[in-house]
Amino acid sequence: MKILIIEDDSTTREFVAKGLREQQFVVDEASDGHQGLVMATSCDYQLIILDRMLPLMDGMKVLAALRATENNTPVLILSAMDSIEDRVAGLNAGSDDYLIKPFALAELLVRVQLLIRRASSDKREVTKYEYADLKLDLRSHRVWRSGFLIPLQQKEFLLLQYLLEHAEQVVSRMHLFEAVWSYHFDPKTNVIDVHIANLHKKLEVENSESLIHTIRGAGYVLRQP
Predict the structure, then answer these.
(1) Which CATH number fits domain 2-125: 3.40.640.10, 1.10.3720.10, 3.40.50.720, 3.40.50.2300?
(2) pLDDT band at 181 (very low <50, low <70, confident <90, very high)
(3) Which of 101, 59, 75, 72 is nearest to 4 (CA)?
(4) Domain boundaries 128-222, corresponding CATH code
(5) What is the value of pTM for the model shown?
(6) pLDDT in tens, 11-32
């Protein structure tokens, strides 16, 4: 499992990294907010340990940037800012835990294990999605609309799954493309539009209303009329 530590204090960073490596974690390190954000968005991590007071880019801004890109990697904030208001602000900003400096390594390790375990459990639990009269089952790889079984191609199924995961949220063509095709989005391609159009037609069953809507200049949204 891979963990990223974003911490400008070298003593703290090396202390935490050493403790994690002794627990068989793979650890990457960043010493400022800008470097940390670049690393966090270019590699998959099971956990990010984030200091609040960072050079170049404040830890709270790093966290906000991550969540704005729908990066849901668990984040554990480390900070000497110990007031209730500071902790609440950190949690409200999208962190999953908040540990005050100075801290015991044993407590940090326990919190790390709990956060990773919780994230893994959340991923395992979601096997079915339902919205309005639409149902998607990941295990059987089947989709129903108003009780009718809808045969979908693999990419159509993945597109619908992404839309269900973000139901009633406008998602851009770029996010859809990168989530389903997993490589860099070419703004000139119309592959998303073609697949969405096919998916839209297949979901039109008896007496059903459209659920997938085009938001001009923004993307698509799964929403009841």
Answers:
(1) 3.40.50.2300
(2) confident
(3) 75
(4) 1.10.10.10
(5) 0.57
(6) 999 999 999 999 999 999 999 9
Written as six digits, the tokens of 123 are 């991923």
pLDDT digits (tens, 9 = 90+) for 106-149: 999 999 999 988 887 655 556 889 999 999 998 888 999 988 99
Q: What are the domain boundaries of the chain?
A: 2-125, 128-222
Q: Write down the H helix ranges in 69-153.
A: 84-92, 105-125
The secondary structure element, H or E, covering residue 185 is none
Which pLDDT score, from 0 to 100, does residue 124 have? 55
- Alpha-carbon distance of 189 to 36, in angstroms, equals 32
Task: Say if residues 174 and 186 touch (Cβ distance below 8 Å).
Answer: no
Tokens of 116: 């990773």
φ, ψ for residue 180 (rounded to 5)?
Answer: -100, -40
Q: Are 60 and 81 in contact (CB under 8 A)?
A: no
Cis peptide before 55 (omega within 30 of 0): no
Q: What is the average pLDDT across 198-218?
A: 88
Q: How far apart are CA 156 and CA 192, in angstroms?
A: 10
φ and ψ of 161, to 5 deg: -60, -45
Which secondary structure element, helix H or strand E, spans residue 209, and what is its range?
Answer: none
The whole-number pLDDT of residue 126 equals 67
Is 2-125's fold the same as 128-222's? Answer: no
Q: Peptide bond preceding 102: is omega within 30 degrees of 0, i.e. cis?
A: yes
**Scanning the structure block, which residue is given the tokens 């079984």?**
149
